[in-house]
Amino acid sequence: MPAGLKYPEIRSDSQDFLRGEALVSNCYRKIQLQFQVGYSDGIDIPPTVTVPAVVPGAVQLDWARAHEYPPYYHGENWKMYQWMEDVFWHYSAALNILPAEGERVILCSKGIDYQYRIRVGEQIIYEYEGMFRHFSVDLTPYLTGNDMLYIDLYPVPKREGTNGRSQASASCKPAVSYGWDWHPRLIPLGIWDDIWIEIRKGIEIKYAEFSYKLQPEQKKADFRFEFESSEACSYRFEILSPKNRSIYVSSGSCRPESTRISGHLSELSLWWPNGYGEQPLYRVRLETESESGGRCAYETRVGFRKSELVMHEGAWEKPDQMPKSRSNPPITMQINGRKIFCKGSNWVPPQIFYGCITENEYRTLLTMAKEANFNMLRVWGGGIVNKDVFYDICDEMGLMVWQEFPLTCNNYSDDLRYLSVLDQESQAIIRRLKGHACLALWCGGNELFNKWSGMTEQSRALRLLNKNCYILDQDTPFIMTSPLSGMAHGGYHFREPDGREVYEVINSSNNTAYTEFGVSSVSDESILAMAIPPDEMFPPKLGTSWVSHHGLQAFYEDCWTCVRVLEYYFGPIKDLNALIKYSSLLQCEGLKAVFEEARRQQPVCSMALSWNFNETWPTAAGNHIVTWDRRPKPAYTAVRDALRPVMVSAKNVRFLWRPGQTFESELWALNDSFDAVEFGEVSAVLTVDDAELTRISWHIGVLSPQTNRRGPTCRAVLPDLDAAELVLTVFSSESAALTSVYRFRLAREEKAESKAAVSLNQ
After folding, report:
1. What is the pLDDT of residue 1?
2. How far apart are the C-alpha atoms of 635 and 592, rounded to whole Å?
3. Coil, strand, or helix at residue 344?
């Protein structure tokens, strides 16, 4: 930690934001501030130069913009930005506000990253460490009418005696910013979410919270609404249906203290995940009026649902040896009393400088997730807790959120200072998110029980998170980390270094949930042009931007581009088009194989969440299925088709076939829906370079809700050809929506293992 850091403190004159929106009438006025920013060598040393700041954003981008730095995402330019993590940054903005009698000037912030103090002139009025707490501070006592507001930022926190991501292990900063196999070391600082001034007069709602309990019959709920006003007032409380019909009204008067309204609702429409029903959102509204005529209102949205994690069928029978010990922990998601197979991906920040993420960017990506038949996103613990609008959109779209706290792949300190920061940050996160219908699961963090982290259930950070989740949101499930016993992370390649293909890996697995798995592919030319200088574009080589942009040496020399794997299957890779084409093909087929096999492994398996959905900057290669500029890779379509609620699937055993071998592929009918489905008759046709080799038919008939059925196996002896494409097409003459296509490679052994054309070292 930099010299001069103080023990974190929340001043008594600050308060957390309301969950929801404070709607104003005659008592609020909103002012946007115009900030400048500069850096210095000390917290008390003013900057010699300041530049205009874009807020929300990051100090690195402000400085780079003013000094015409080249884009950080091209080539090795990102290295020019790294020095900025080790200096003190200072925001300044003119207030020039002199409140009238009875008015208060309130600074409102949704996030400043990371440790900072706030001053009016030389008077320090607020200090905090953390980035996820929404707060407001009354500036009124410090104003003279011609004032300056200052926000002083300390350098990036780094745990002493460590390097890389381990430097984040004593802070709540996203560990990914310290460097990862798909993210460069660029660590944002600055005002990363909205900040503004409110001029308030008269009554205000200081606190409001709506909670409910669904009754066993699900259509009824008992609710409680608590609020606190700043002065005595009359109030009107109302709940409106998704069709804007009033279903509950209460009115009365209250003192400036906590007021509770309790009631009962019936004939509710339940909120369901995408693909299982609608997402009705009710409005909860409070209007207050003081004796002097001041008015204030508050409104939030609510989706009624019950979220649980339960044991899978047969779980209590394992382990079967004596003395019996612990079974695998529950990871089957149950919404409103019905089991849901969770289909989706891991979500990472859409931008390195996460302050720049916009509502439009969130909405575009989340719409793509919904249209890919996702019903869950795992918000990975190495990244951020997203801005409010992310969760609002997930509420609307039926995308369940698995929310992790900002801990990943580190042994997070039992130091009391760190725990105090984690305590206040986690409480702020829980209070902010717990009312969202989309919030399905809390998780302590990513890969904390692995040997590279070394944490256990006795680690104080995890015990603290468990306690806070129970006290503040006990109706939402909590798990310590992912994976737990019985769950799986990996693999991440089409062909493992030991020679096993993705088909063998997944077909021989038997896990309760696959919460990280992937297959990488090379990015398309437009993304590569953003990342790689023209003279380094092809072939990929060590010592070039292919390394910085994670195409090579991510874990080992050829990861994530995997040129040697491509040449094993397809022979020499002679140009960029071939590199992109073949790697995209393997990503498509590999992800389909895992998603569909995970579904076949129900009811023991209950989740399939790929690594990963999106990316934070333009990479040379990676596991994502949507590019940095929000375009689908070919694998996006493959995943979308593999996650159709109702489909006919082929269980395949390998990608590379040899002449004379007997091709085999087992057909399956999959039905994730709540309805029985009439499949009728389907056909499977195997072609070799478009020439039909064999055909089989299967009359499936009716398939019960949430049921899979094994069918016949398609077999054929493969012809003696040097190299060819094998295509298995499964289709129904009655429904084009059931069509599934699988591609394979037929090649002689000497052709498949011919000498590589691409050298990584020359």
Report:
1. 37
2. 9
3. strand
Residue with tokens 């089409």: 494
Report the percent of the chain where pLDDT is more than 70.
95
Token digits for 72? Answer: 């950080």
State how beta strands 521-522 and 621-622 pair. antiparallel
As a whole number of angstroms, the distance between CA 388 and CA 305 comes to 20
Query: In which element (H, E) is residue 441 found?
Result: strand 439-443
Burial class (CB in 10 A: 0-12, 13-18, 19+), 325: exposed
What is the rounded average pLDDT of the residues 435-457? Answer: 96
Terminus-to-terminus CA distance in the chain, angstroms? 42
Kindly give, in sequence order, each residue whose CB lies less than 8 Å from that of residue 631, ignoring residues fewer than 6 positions away. none
**Residue among 135, 130, 132 nearest 171 (CA):** 130
Ramachandran sector of residue 104 (left: φ over 0; alpha: ψ -120 to 50; beta: rest): beta
DSSP labels, 17-35: PPSSEEEESSSEEEE---E
DSSP secondary structure string for all residues of 555-568:
SSTTTTT-HHHHHH
C-alpha 72/C-alpha 616 separation (Å) is: 12
Give the list of residues 6+ apart from residue 727 with CB closer than 8 angstroms, or none: 686, 687, 690, 741, 742, 743, 744
Q: Which residues contact 514 (CB under 8 A, 6 or more apart)?
A: 487, 488, 506, 594, 598, 605, 607, 608, 609
Strands 233-240 and 246-254: antiparallel
pLDDT, tens only, 611-634:
999 999 999 999 999 999 999 999
**225 class by beta-carbon count within 10 Å (0-12 exposed, 13-18 middle, 19+ buried):** buried
Q: Is 737 exposed, middle or buried (0-12, 13-18, 19+ CB in 10 A)?
A: exposed
Distances (CA, A) of 217 to 247, 266, 337, 675, 689: 19, 10, 10, 20, 57
Q: Which residue has the tokens 């029978």?
A: 317
- The rounded distance, in Å, linking the Cα atoms of 175 and 182 is 12
The counts of H helices and E strands in the chain are: 12, 44
Are 60 and 248 spatial neighbours (Cβ–Cβ below 8 Å)?
A: no
What is the Cα–Cα distance from 479 to 357, expressed in whole angstroms?
A: 28
Residues 195, 112 contacting (CB under 8 angstroms):
yes
Q: Which helix (H) or strand (E) holds 717?
A: strand 707-717
Distance CA(706)–CA(605), nearest Å, equals 13
DSSP-assigned states of every residue in 358-406: -HHHHHHHHHHHHHTT--EEEE-TTSPPPPHHHHHHHHHHT-EEEEE-S
- Claim: this prediction has a pTM higher than 0.90: yes
pLDDT digits (tens, 9 = 90+) for 392-431: 999 999 999 999 999 999 999 899 999 999 999 999 999 9
Which of 359, 293, 286, 387 minimizes the C-alpha distance to 22? 286
Quick one: DSSP state of residue 549?
T
